[in-house]
Amino acid sequence: MPITDAMRTRHVVRQYLDTPLDDVAAALLARVEEANASHGTDIRLLAGSARVFGPLWGTVRARSVRNCLVMAGPDTPDLDERLGHAGAGLMLAAQELGLNTWWVGGTFSKRAAARASGATGRVVAVVALGYGATQGTAHDSKRPEEVASYEGEPPAWFTQGVEAALLAPTAFGKQAFTLAGRDGEVMITCEEGDYAGQDRGIVKYFFEVGAGRDNFRWAS
Question: What is the pTM (predicted TM-score) of this model?
């Protein structure tokens, strides 16, 4: 499955079948190791025993979650963004492997996640994953002109990048980001909040895939 197809078919799934990851675990773990090496993170895969949700969530939405990625790394100012970027790639990799995912930035126990996975540094989020009871549904989306602008005639890569960014999962589905382009440079701005860094990293990854990383540069 091309990664662009993975973007379009990936939806939030909160209920999972009790099917082990045996056939795809090795491939997923290899992608985790690549992500850690390229992002300086300590993401861990918990398979079969992802007991990281509190009592309330354990009996409601998350009761069927058996596997997850624990998103962690050295506590630096840009950790949330780096984990968002790495996690976006891993969610799409999981989708390519036939799995479903759910990015969870809160309502789980960071202490339990660190203890169960052995992850070091600061735990930022978990990504529940497995074989979904459903394939989820597409989220409501803003229009491209509501989140993006380009000075002058926008090149095709910018338009494609914005379309991809609108497929990215964001906190509470708010899509609280803007993308502004000029002379081959793109600036991203996210609404301030607890999940702004995660959103920035996730949206950046999706935009990069849609636009083609060699076609532009991020504004510093």
Answer: 0.94
